[in-house]
User: What shape does this take?
Amino acid sequence: MTPGAPFIVRKDDHLFIDQWRAKRIAEHVGTPCFVYSKAALEHAWHQYADALAGTPHLICYAVKANSNLAILNLFARLGAGFDIVSGGELARVLAAGGKADRVVFSGVGKTEGEMRAALYAGIKCFNIESPSELERLDRVAGEMGKVAPISVRVNPDVDAKTHAHISTGKKENKFGIGYDMAPDVYRRARDLANIRITGIDAHIGSQVLDVEPLYACMRRLLDLVDRLASEGIHLHHISNGGGLGVQYRQGETSPDIPAYVTRLMAMLDGRKLELLLEPGRSLVGNAGVLLSTVEVLKIAGEKRFCVVDAAMNDLARPAIYGAWHDIVNAGPDTAPVRDWDVVGPVCESTDKLGEGRPLGISEGDMVAILSAGAYGMTMSSNYNTRPRAVEVLIDGDDAHIIRKREVIADLFKDELIPGQG
Ligand code: LLP
Assistant: This one.
């Protein structure tokens, strides 16, 4: 099954995003182009929301996965909260119609300016990642005459068994406060005048396919909740973070979201806690594709290179993590199927989108890089002075441009030559 099915499928020799032929979309907006299926986004949302119905909860979408205003707006209308990691993400959430009192703010290095903006907006809570951040927040809140709601982000020292670059819950990672240290941080927080304790949270990593470590994390958090309660520190919410993986290649299975959520609810075991989750990838990853045109087919000795017009600046994951994304022909095969290294035009040998991919393509054809909805556009750059791609949201019969393709002149409009102008 194609990653993204049943919303993104190949049938009758064409790739479809909902009822739209990929080629038809690209004819209108050009390539490279990110296309998202609204139906797929809503489906993923309901995997969480329906299972959580009946339990006090908040699904805080991790904005970093895909922060386009249209996507944030869609989730806001579905009732989402948001997990942010910067003042910039807060501004986006608010601009998209998200509610500040549903925002949790993670991150190891929040600046005073970011703290002020979040206090001013009135966010749900700051996920505190160090003792010194707690002191700083108390001071900043005091200066503003506010009380800052906090959760302590605990580093549970649990191995998420995922790529080292996206593993965050081991004690050697920079994230969170050491498990043994956390009670002291809560005791200190209780004594600070401008701090109000509201919760506890953790996030152990991303693209997690084996959910056992996530349950281990929840268990560790619940043990702390009970210990704190015995000292008279009562928490209002618990967040087990994000992290559920998605299918990137045929044959791979991603975790069953309702089963995961149901088990977390059972683990609460009557404790009066609001359950928070911070999913990013599992809400958007399989809902998007990156469409790209084959520019040049090049044979160099044993190697066959398919040079496309998308590159590592559009989708950095293969270059950074060696990540796999399935790549398919967007239209009918026009040549015998051969194994191709699908590469971009950027001047780096790591600019590979996929190696040895069987494709029956010719120059001018269009390919689709699948499961590109998460950490695609948000990690894109202008490297090699390449304008960022256009983004399209498919909504039934309608295809909306939700971000225009960048214009080259805009890429250097803020640059100044000393002595000129
Ligand atoms: N909460 C916190 C505090 C996080 O740091 C993250 C992701 C999430 C939630 C959402 O995790 P998700 O549900 O998406 O797994 N660029 C990498 C992924 C980095 C994830 C960083 N933190 C990639 O492309 O694989």
Notes: The two ends are 57 Å apart (CA to CA). The mean pLDDT is 96.
